[in-house]
Design goal:
Number of strands: 12
Structural class: alpha+beta
Shape: globular
Oligomer: single chain
Radius of gyration: 24 Å
Strand content: 25-35%
Order of helices and strands: HHHEEEEEEEEEEEE
CATH class of the largest domain: Mainly Beta
Distance between the termini: 69 Å
Amino acid sequence: MSHERLTQARPFLTLGLVVAAWLVVPVAIKSFFRASFFEFTAPVGVIASYARDLQQYWTLRLHSESELIEAGRDLARLNASYALSVQQNTELEAEVGRLENLLRLPSHPDYRSEPARVMRRDFSGWWQRLEIRKGKNFGIPVGAPVVFTGGVVGRVTEVHAYTSVVELISSPNLRLAATLEGDTRPISFQGGINPTFGPARAEIEFVPLDIYASDLMPKRLVTSGLGGVFPAGLLLGTVTKVEPSTDGLFKTGEVQLDPRLSDLTEVTVLVPLNTE
């Protein structure tokens, strides 16, 4: 009877010994094994991502000719609109440069835009992380801001040989200084505790008492540029609710993030040109 009990308990004893051995292993060795495992499994995710792109390509090939013509017309209109926006942006940049030289103001740090395809989303933390198909091979550094057409996506937290991990702005671990559009006073922004497949929200603190916002009168929240990570003026979300904090000195509020964060397929990494 004791032999049968020992046989049944052997897997648990083995598991306990493995866990105990892992607990006493130095942190450097744990980090090495973690990075090695990530690099070993990364090609599987990259191949799966390329396979999804190929599947989408053949799905589009099955559309009728009239649908493709209509999509081409819509794309032509969109390209014309973007061409006009690029021209206006070039003129505005030239005007900003002229004013900076005239007033002897320091220029903003320059960034190189590096578009990247989203490889997969971490389902264990849907609103926390995603992985992109570019890493050290494209010079992406840790801490680089990541954006898309709707504003800020997050920042790079891990860089590997061919992939990178991006922490989303909806993650509670991400904090940054923000301002309300048209206001220069800094506000503390932090990601919230979000449901797995629900709408993404964030929180703000230290909001001045004279600020009001609601669903009927929302306010746009943008990056302040403080801290040197995110350029100023990037959209974070929309403030839909503010209320007095417990100390009564400031207000706290809720920020509604862009719903497109849940299905991003392409993002842009802002790589600083000045490495210092």
